[in-house]
Amino acid sequence: MSSDLVSLGIEGLGLNLSPANILDLELFLQEMSRWNRVHNLTAIEGEANSVRLHLIDSITVLPVMRQFLGLQNPKIADLGSGGGLPAIPIAILQPEWRLTLIEAIRKKTAFLQHVRGKLGLKNIEVLSERVEAVAKSQPGQFDAVISRAFTNLAHFLELSLPLLKPDGLIFAMKARRANEELQDVCMDDWRLVADEPLQIPNLVVERRLLVLSPVRKLPL
Prior knowledge:
One of its GO terms (molecular function) is rRNA (guanine-N7-)-methyltransferase activity. By secondary structure, this protein is an alpha/beta fold.
């Protein structure tokens, strides 16, 4: 894969990536492609689709996340990390952020651990556990929770709430069904902070990033 191919889409995001960033992102995709042939980490194959739908889709969220995460070293949980999306690209570009990748399927956590070592990503932790178990062992420990194609929005919020600090944020990467999924969320419990369209360069596909925060309930 050439850096020109990656830059073709990334330049349109205005993230000012360094040559080292580009090389690490390329290496991540190469390792995903290599492991995917044996372990079926993702259903999307082919270089162009991998660049656009995996890597670029994952990092389009960064400008919005930077806007809302004012902390210098926020702690972020990625639920159902799978092949490391969006957490690995985010970790590459935000080395000061601390990301916990939660994935219950061991062949996928083996890949995540491999990539962590291959890229020297000291800012990530990989947990081979169910989300519910992590919520019990680390309740209220995260400034933010993110997910890409993990589950429907209402279930994602239910799983995320025990992990969040009181002022924590949810970042839900969604596509066309976002409006339908929002209808199933009890907005007495959640506040929609932002609903941002995400543009993937050179690809006509609808993507949105929903930012939500839990409504604080006053004691009776």
